TrEMBL record:
The keyword Transcription applies. Keywords: DNA-binding, Sigma factor, Transcription, Transcription regulation. It comes from the Bacteria. The keyword Acyltransferase does not apply. This is RNA polymerase sporulation-specific sigma factor. GO terms for molecular function: DNA binding; sigma factor activity.
């Protein structure tokens, strides 16, 4: 058992000093991983890395292997999963914009409107953003969306209405 494993075990047992030391020791790995997978939202990814570290300390079982290998794997797949979720929803502009010709002024104004829409969509809650994207972009019916979420049809209708109302308020 190495020093990192010992710190993880002490941290799991509630030793705050051991947790601090582990966070300090693994900070370079967290930052490097955040940069490797995502160069734009590095601060957010670093924070996610700390959350993963604390969860790994809590869940660590020394009988199943080294803490460092366990943490590296959890961190990598957590960040990849987050990036996949972001990729599925944003940027929406590419999915919304279909270049239909027109002059450069029209294209510029359309792009500005789409940027404003994309910004407003980011302000929606996850469920509201999901229903707007699935209904208007992926062209799924409200029945399909409700069924996949295990909700009633009318719940999906009301969620879509609230999302559209909020989008209108944000864009006015």
């Amino acid at each position: 058992m190495d020093y990192i494993d010992e710190l993880a075990i002490k941290g799991r047992e509630g030793d705050g000093k051991a947790i601090e030391m582990l966070v300090e020791k693994l900070k370079p790995m967290i930052v490097a991983t955040a940069y490797r997978f995502n160069r734009y939202d590095v601060d957010d990814m670093v924070q996610e890395g700390y959350i993963v570290l604390l969860q790994c300390i809590k869940d660590y079982d020394c009988d199943r292997g080294a803490f460092l290998a366990y943490f590296k794997t959890k961190l990598k797949y957590h960040i990849l999963n987050l990036l996949r979720k972001v990729k599925d929803t944003l940027p929406i502009m590419e999915e919304l914009v279909a270049d239909e010709g027109g002059g450069p002024e029209i294209n510029f104004l359309e792009k500005m409107e789409h940027l404003e829409l994309e910004k407003a969509l980011r302000c929606l809650g996850e469920k509201q953003r999901d229903i707007v994207i699935r209904y208007y972009i992926k062209e799924q019916s409200l029945s399909e969306i409700a069924r996949s979420q295990g909700k009633h049809y009318m719940s999906a209708v009301r969620l879509k209405e609230r999302a559209l109302k909020k989008l209108r308020e944000l864009m006015d």
